[in-house]
Each structure stands twice: as structure tokens, then as C-alpha cells.
């Protein structure tokens, strides 16, 4: 009897001793919920919510997300990144909407030695001490624009005019066009720019039309990207019009209306998931994403931006499992380093926009499987051969 009492007492004592708990994986997410890039930032946030609904735990551990709004301001993007790292002690950063904002955030992440997954395209940034810290889910702009130039070349077009943003995204688009057009013997005869906050692009459009190009390429995204589309339609332009992946959104279609008909855009496979062959591994993940999006947000996705942040979640989940296998604990500097190494050792992670394989020399991680060409027809995206 005394032995039984002793065993029960020992058991009670063991139960009363606090068990060492694994810290949650802490994700700092920055996006533009307000400001001129909110048409991208709000979908980005919905994509993260879809990721949490699809995969709520990583390696059996809970994941906690701290989300901050940068108001579409690059200064706020960097400030939020610092706050998340220095005050909240996050293990990884994900963000943000817009190329200038993401570049500012990435620069801060590198300085603080925290791994980051960029969900907007950015130009190369210095890797920092010991190697790179930032990967991105959007396809590299040159890969997307190559699809445009290939289409132009197939149609025998010889000249093209460009009209796009004055910021880093516009530069990415134009520089990529310049690079691909040169090798295809296609001449760029106009380069017009406008700010995202502009309310009119009449002067730029008049100059573009006056140059008499065989085709026009657009370097704007979201709702501001609709301005030149509408202006060109009002001035009777009937030639080929090429857009970009930033025009795959309900907001763009709503604002551009019938003027968008005929625009050819390079984009990721998720845009036309149902039109992909079942043998394509991306189709299943893309359809799973749509189901998770509806579960998390109560509506179907109508954009491409949310899928970039969803893919960021998948990439994080894969890398975090391998980082934890190293024995590093979330919340520690060692875990950040292990997570960074794991990110750049990612192999064949199937997402909605592509299949990701990162290396220290390749922050994009995707190949031609991440690009399809679609044409806008009455508010829908038709897959082109």
C-alpha cells in the first residue's frame, strides 16, 4: 500500500513539473493593406491566410504570424521589418507588396541577418556577410518577358513601344524587354513612364501611339496598370498589346473593362489551373490553393498575387522542417541561420506558380515550368498554346 502511495506521489510530482516546450515558429509578415499598392497587398495577406489554412503546423510545431501594414511606403516596409526582428524576435520575414517596398524590406533583412521570402519581384541585392538571405517566389521578370518577346517574334513584329511605372518595377520590366528584344532583333522605339499615383497618362500614350509601333508592352500592375489600357482604347489603338503578371487581378479587369480584351500576358500556371493537363504537377497544388483560399477567406481567389504569398508559405514549411531537423530551436539565432541554409537548399517544391529549387546563386528557384501565356477575353484568361 505504501509502495502504491509512493508511486502515485511520484507520478503526481512528474506531472507537476513543467515540460520543456518547443517555441512556436514566428513569422513576420509585411504587406500593403493601404495605399496605392493595396490592390496587391490585400491579396498577399489573403494568400498567407490560405497558407495557414492549408498547413497550420510545420514539422508538428505551431506557426504564429505577426502581420504589419506598410501603407505601400518603402520606408515603412523597412521600419516594420526592423520592428518584427528587433522587438518581436521573428524567425523569418515574408513580404511585401510592390518592388520598391520589397527591396527596402530585403535590404533590412540582410542587415539584420534574418532569412526572408520575397513575394514581389526585386532586383538583385548585395548578399551580405556569409552569403544571401533572401529568396523570392515571383518568377524572374526576364523569364516572363521572354515569353512576350517569343510571341512577338512568332508574329513577325519588328518594333515595340513601352509604357510603365517610373519605379523599380517599371525598370525591371523595361530592362528585361531591352535584354530579350535585342537578341530577337526587335527594336524598342519608345519608353514612356508614369507614377502609380498619376490620374492621367494622356501625354505618354499620345507619344507612344505617335511612334507607330508594331506592338505595345505595358509595365504597370494592379489598378494603376489599367490607366494606359483605357487611354489606348479611347484613342483607337488596335495593335497587339502585351501585359504582365501584375495584371492578373479582378481589380485590373474591373477597371480596364472591355479595353483589356486581347491583352496577352505572361503569368504563372495557377492563372489557368483548370486548363492545364492533369499530368502537370502544378495543377493539383493550384487547385488545392483555391480550396484553401476559399476556406480561409470565404471567397474564391481572383488574382495572382495571393498565390505568390501562398507559395512563400509552402517554401517556408519545407525549409523549416529541415531546419528543425538540424536541432536548432525556433527563436534562436542558430535557427535563423539553419533556416537560411535550408531555404537555399530547397529542391523541387511544387507551388502554384512554379517548382522551386533554390541555390545560393539562384534566388528565383524556377524554370520555364513557371510561365504560361494567356489572353484576356471578356474578363477571363485563356491559355495560349
UniProtKB/TrEMBL annotation:
* A biological-process GO annotation: amino acid transport
Entry annotated with the keyword Transport: yes
Q: Which SUPFAM superfamilies match?
A: Periplasmic binding protein-like I
One of its Pfam families is Peripla_BP_6
Signal peptide start and end residues: 1-23
Query: Which CDD domains does the protein's record reference?
Result: PBP1_ABC_RPA1789-like
Q: Specify the Leucine-binding protein domain's residue ranges.
A: 25-368
Protein keywords: Amino-acid transport, Signal, Transport
Keyword 4Fe-4S found = no
Cited InterPro entries:
BCAA_transport, Leu-bd, Peripla_BP_I
- Give the record's family classification: Belongs to the leucine-binding protein family.
Could you identify this protein by its name? Branched-chain amino acid ABC transporter substrate-binding protein
Amino acid at each position: 500500500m505504501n509502495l502504491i502511495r509512493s508511486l502515485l506521489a511520484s507520478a503526481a510530482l512528474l506531472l507537476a513539473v513543467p515540460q520543456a516546450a518547443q517555441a512556436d515558429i514566428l513569422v513576420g509578415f509585411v504587406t500593403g493593406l493601404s495605399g496605392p499598392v493595396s490592390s496587391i497587398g490585400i491579396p498577399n495577406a489573403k494568400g498567407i491566410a490560405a497558407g495557414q489554412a492549408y498547413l497550420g503546423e510545420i514539422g508538428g510545431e505551431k506557426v504564429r504570424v505577426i502581420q504589419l501594414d506598410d501603407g505601400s511606403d518603402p520606408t515603412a516596409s523597412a521600419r516594420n521589418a526592423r520592428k518584427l526582428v528587433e522587438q518581436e524576435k521573428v524567425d523569418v520575414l515574408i513580404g511585401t507588396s510592390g518592388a520598391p517596398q520589397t527591396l527596402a524590406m530585403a535590404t533590412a533583412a540582410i542587415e539584420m541577418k534574418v532569412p526572408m521570402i520575397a513575394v514581389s519581384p526585386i532586383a538583385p541585392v548585395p548578399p551580405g556577410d556569409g552569403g544571401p538571405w533572401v529568396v523570392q517566389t515571383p518568377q524572374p521578370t526576364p523569364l516572363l518577358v521572354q515569353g512576350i518577346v517569343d510571341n512577338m517574334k512568332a508574329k513577325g513584329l519588328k518594333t515595340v513601344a513601352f509604357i510603365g511605372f517610373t519605379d523599380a518595377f517599371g525598370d525591371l520590366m523595361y530592362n528585361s524587354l531591352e535584354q530579350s528584344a535585342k537578341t530577337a532583333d526587335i527594336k524598342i522605339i519608345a519608353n514612356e513612364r508614369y507614377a502609380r499615383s498619376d490620374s492621367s497618362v494622356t501625354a505618354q500614350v499620345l507619344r507612344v501611339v505617335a511612334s507607330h509601333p508594331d506592338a505595345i508592352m505595358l509595365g504597370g500592375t494592379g489598378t494603376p496598370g489599367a490607366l494606359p489600357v483605357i487611354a489606348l482604347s479611347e484613342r483607337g489603338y488596335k495593335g497587339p498589346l502585351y501585359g504582365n503578371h501584375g495584371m492578373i487581378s479582378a481589380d485590373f479587369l474591373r477597371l480596364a473593362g472591355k479595353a483589356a480584351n486581347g491583352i496577352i500576358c505572361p503569368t504563372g500556371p495557377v492563372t489557368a489551373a483548370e486548363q492545364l493537363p492533369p499530368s502537370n504537377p502544378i495543377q493539383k497544388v493550384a487547385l488545392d490553393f483555391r480550396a484553401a483560399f476559399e476556406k480561409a477567406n470565404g471567397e474564391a481567389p481572383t488574382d495572382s498575387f495571393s498565390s505568390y504569398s501562398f507559395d512563400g508559405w509552402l517554401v517556408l514549411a519545407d525549409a523549416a522542417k529541415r531546419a528543425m531537423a538540424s536541432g536548432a530551436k525556433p527563436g534562436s539565432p542558430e535557427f535563423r541561420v539553419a533556416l537560411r541554409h535550408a531555404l537555399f537548399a530547397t529542391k523541387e517544391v511544387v507551388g502554384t506558380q512554379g517548382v522551386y529549387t533554390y541555390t545560393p546563386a539562384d534566388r528565383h528557384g524556377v524554370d520555364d515550368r513557371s510561365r504560361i501565356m494567356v489572353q484576356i477575353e471578356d474578363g477571363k484568361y485563356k491559355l495560349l498554346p
